[in-house]
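Subject: for your reference before the review

Hello V.,

The reviewers asked for a structural picture of the protein, and I figured it would be easier to keep everything in one thread rather than splitting it across files. Below is the amino acid sequence we used in the manuscript, unchanged from the supplementary table.
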Amino acid sequence: MSLTCIKSRHFLKNLKNVKLLLGNKTYSSMVSYVQGQSPEKNVREYFYYIDHQGMLFLDDSKMKNFTSAYKEIDFLVFFFKRLKPNTIDRYREHFPWISLCGRERNFIRCDDFPIVFTQIIQSDDGNFLFCHNHAGSKLSVLFQPNKLWMDVENGRVYHPASEQHGSIGLVSSRTAIELSKMFMYNIDKHNYVPTHFNWCNKKYTLDPDWFKNLIVKRIN
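And here is what came back from the structure prediction:
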């Protein structure tokens, strides 16, 4: 198994040109690998891709759709609970995320960020949880309405994730469309960036600093 995510749009553009070599099932573009390869004794390596809807696929799957995505919740929970930045000296540039399972290395790349929020639910204690990567409440963080951030350049919406998972998560497009109905804008200043969010009859002032600070930290 393996997880990865590449934030750089330049990399993403190039990685879409992955070429399949049918002979030995080696996939290459800027990087070559064989699923299940063993670079050292008792170690296996697998390569995964997470799309902008938060669905998990084998990186070399020809067709990436609902049918070919991993859907078993226990597996997804196990996989994402172990997801973290790739800090080992293998595939770090092209697969910046990894999920370790014993001697199994699961390298991961993604369309944007590996954590993709898909659903808001209310827990038994009354708090709202933002569920991610299609595992219901088993993979979730506390929903913070004031921390939603819309990137007006690409139209995508982001929300804080756990520090282990990079602190930033993407909101899936379907969920973002629903949430966009509750964004409020300060049209007097001709500012098309949302300034407030209306949630459960309460108006929240949006805080963009958390997102901007994290992006600056990543660049530096």
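For the response letter, the relevant points are probably these. The CA atoms of residues 22 and 84 lie 31 Å apart. The helical segments are 9-15, 73-81, 173-180, 209-219.

Happy to draft the paragraph if you're swamped.

O.
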